[in-house]
UniProtKB/TrEMBL annotation:
GO CC list: nucleolus; preribosome, large subunit precursor
Name of the protein this chain belongs to: 60S ribosome subunit biogenesis protein NIP7 homolog
Gene Ontology molecular function: RNA binding
CDD domains: Nip7_N_euk (cd21146), PUA_Nip7-like (cd21151)
Family according to the record: Belongs to the NIP7 family.
Originating organism: Caenorhabditis briggsae
Amino acid sequence: MRPLTEDETSLVFAKLASFIGDNVSMLIDRNDGDYCFRNHKERVYYCSENLMRQAACISREPLLSFGSCLGKFTKSKKFHLQITALDYLAPYAKFKVWLKPNAEQQFLYGNNILKSGIARMTDGTPTHAGIVVYSMTDVPLGFGVSAKGTADSKRADPTALVVLHQCDLGEYLRNESHLN
């Protein structure tokens, strides 16, 4: 367990900023205490400083995880968000999309979202922006990247891809052994 380096911090914050914008500061400056990001075995954990101090009492090898795993660094040093970050992205998301009930199951099986499956979308969503996917009952289902902005998607045909899948709640079942 170690603090993030400057390069790692900039990669993590850039990825978070693509989904929640300037609200990244709200993850650190919270009313209920001080929170921090820590790297442990190439995974980035988000936890309270109290929990971090308690976890520091355990040696690194037997420590499996602490706090919430936001994502991991690949061998090429790129940062990938995991589904466990959804609880922290959803309340602060800049761009959102709500799915029709028949498209929810397709998304939860790992498929991209077509225009025909979208009930509504945040106005002003640009292309290639991080987007959080919700059901019609405002339950966050996952996140992805917009393939088309709001203006382009209104003109697109119903079979056009609008949101590219990155993570969904179905990953808890599909990749249970890889999530820490």
